[in-house]
Amino acid sequence: MERLWTPAWIVRHVAMVVLVAGCLGMGWWQVTRAAGGNAISFGYAIEWPVFAGFVIFVWWREVRQTLRATPPGDAQPTADPAPSAAAGAEPAVTTPAVRRPVRVVRTPSAPADGADDAELAAYNRYLSWLNANPGARPGDYPG
User: Fold this and answer.
1) How far does CA 127 lie from the centroid of its chain?
2) Which of 71, 112, 130, 137 has the most beta carbons within 10 angstroms of its beta carbon?
């Protein structure tokens, strides 16, 4: 339970209470508007408590997930259900439940046949000319 009283979790608890109170308050406001003759407010009077229920559902799910996770200092060794037949085999490495993203550097590839694209080269010459002549219009291009 100590894991649920960190500063980050206190902010989550307060946010949940504020959001639920706000949604229920908005629902009550819609009930009073509906009682005053605004027919559309009947739908909103039902919708706001549903939003409050969703906030509670997400908060409860996060609490359960945090309580089920093992704390970093209490890592328990996992038992190998099927011991390996080889005497000197290395133990199986378990993969974590959440993996870190892998960043891949993408570089432009050269054409497969090695030839330059003539259309691309002409377009690059056109862009170079426009850059060299800032006051010129595209229609002034001599090429």
Assistant:
1) 38
2) 130
pTM metric for this prediction: 0.49
36 three-state secondary structure: coil
Q: What are the structural domain ranges in the chain?
A: 2-71
Helix, strand, coil distribution of the chain in percent, nearest 5: 55, 0, 45
| Token pair for 100 | 């870190």
Each residue's pLDDT tens digit in the chain (143 positions)? Answer: 788 888 989 999 999 999 999 999 999 999 999 999 988 999 999 999 999 999 999 999 999 999 988 666 655 555 555 555 555 566 666 666 777 778 878 777 666 555 568 888 888 888 888 888 888 888 888 87
- The Cα 2–Cα 10 span in angstroms is 11
Supply 64's token pair: 């359960």
What is d(CA 59, CA 20) in angstroms, rounded to the nearest whole number? Answer: 11
Separation between Cα atoms, residue 63 and residue 127, nearest integer Å: 57
Q: How far apart are CA 12 and CA 59, in angstroms?
A: 8
